[in-house]
């Protein structure tokens, strides 16, 4: 109980804390709740698949890593502001009863190595749907905030390469390209 490190430590068998870093089998997934109906999700077909950074920006390789990353502070607020986009998720109540449901949008990386979280919550909205009804939920996202991570020294970086938006069992890949 006195060890509150967030990240897992495979060398000692420490499992990590919070849904972001816990490597064991959870009793309940983060966001799991009781419902009398089932929901399905789909990302909109016209969703963003690539984010292009200015080719004059120089990525760096954090210590003990082979991952090319961009320092968020070096990108600046103008660049970060220009990278903003929206992800639209279709939600359908598949059951025979009406229900209120939290739609949880997570981001994850292709791997959780080098201190990356397994996943992180980037947005949520509650919807109420009658049986058989559907709706669209729009999540405004900023790659500098929602797709970045903190490295060992606390610096926030945006990794080059694949990132995934996840809702339920559905995933949508977004590539950071320079």
From TrEMBL:
Cellular component GO terms, alphabetical: plant-type cell wall
GO terms of molecular function: alpha-L-arabinofuranosidase activity; xylan 1,4-beta-xylosidase activity
Pfam hit, one: Fn3-like
Limits of the Fibronectin type III-like domain: 101-171
Recorded superkingdom: Eukaryota
UniProt-listed Gene3D superfamilies: Immunoglobulins (2.60.40.10)
A single BP term in Gene Ontology: xylan catabolic process
Family: Belongs to the glycosyl hydrolase 3 family.
Protein name: Fibronectin type III-like domain-containing protein
Organism this protein belongs to: Musa balbisiana (Banana)
């Amino acid at each position: 109980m006195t060890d509150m490190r967030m990240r897992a430590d495979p060398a000692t068998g420490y499992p990590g804390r919070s849904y972001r870093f816990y490597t064991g089998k959870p009793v309940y997934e983060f966001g799991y709740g009781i419902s009398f109906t089932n929901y399905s999700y789909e990302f909109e077909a016209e969703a963003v698949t690539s984010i292009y950074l200015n080719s004059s920006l120089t990525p760096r390789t954090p210590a003990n890593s082979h991952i090319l990353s961009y320092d968020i502070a070096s990108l600046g607020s103008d660049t970060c502001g220009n990278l903003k986009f929206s992800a639209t998720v279709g939600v359908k109540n598949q059951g025979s009863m009406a229900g209120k449901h939290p739609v949880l949008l997570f981001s994850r990386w292709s791997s959780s190595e080098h201190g990356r979280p397994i996943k992180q919550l980037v947005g949520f909205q509650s919807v109420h749907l009658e049986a058989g009804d559907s709706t669209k939920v729009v999540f405004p996202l900023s790659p500098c905030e929602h797709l970045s991570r903190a490295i060992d020294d606390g610096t926030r970086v945006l990794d080059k390469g694949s990132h995934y938006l996840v809702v339920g069992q559905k995933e949508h890949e977004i590539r950071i390209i320079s």
